[in-house]
# Entry
Amino acid sequence: MGGAEDSRSTGTGRPTPRDVARLAGVSHTAVSFVFNGRAEGNLSPATQERNRQAAAQLGYRPDPVSRGLRRRRTAVIGLVTDEIASSPFAGRLLRGAMETAWGSDHLVLTVDSGGDPAEEDAAVAELLDRRVDGIIYAAMSLRRVRVPEGLHRTHSVLANCLPEDGSLPAVVPAERVGGRTAARLLLDAGHRRLAVIGPTCREPAPGSIPCRSNSSRRVSM
# Structure
């Protein structure tokens, strides 16, 4: 029962590493080794398993705040968007970011600025204050964007847009490859007169990436 009393004494109501150590019959250091990825070579497999079983029995989970302080990392990635978070058409981008982050034991904290530059700068500043490990800036439409203030102060990458000043890495769709693939499918089916329906290339929107209409022309007939 001492473990439960120790848990209450922390004021958190959650089991502590000392509770796990007491139940497993090991030292506090042994518990730290197991849950900080340092058990290999320091503890036997049997001791490691005993730690994990004790943790499971108590419902113990490492405190992410304490772990972040020790590692100087928060395991949180910020994602600032212009309007993606409120758009029904961009769920895959958000889901892809969250699934990839989750697979690396990270969470994604999303802020939708509504396309307001001042809101974007404020969002980046708030994320930096929260010590996120990095920031993704994503745009609803493929275009060149003003880089929000503060993005250069941490690891940052742009998604579905390009920086006006070329100062940050960016991930954009392979639209030309997609056009060629579509044209090839039609040509392989025997079609020879192809048409492209989409935005006009004559007057691109301000800041947008000039579109290409020659994908089908370059596919060998």
User: Anything to note?
Assistant: Residues 45-58 form the longest helix (14 residues). Residues 1-11, 201-208 have pLDDT under 50 and may be disordered. The beta strands are 76-81, 107-112, 134-145, 156-163, 170-171. The first strand starts at residue 76 and ends at 81.
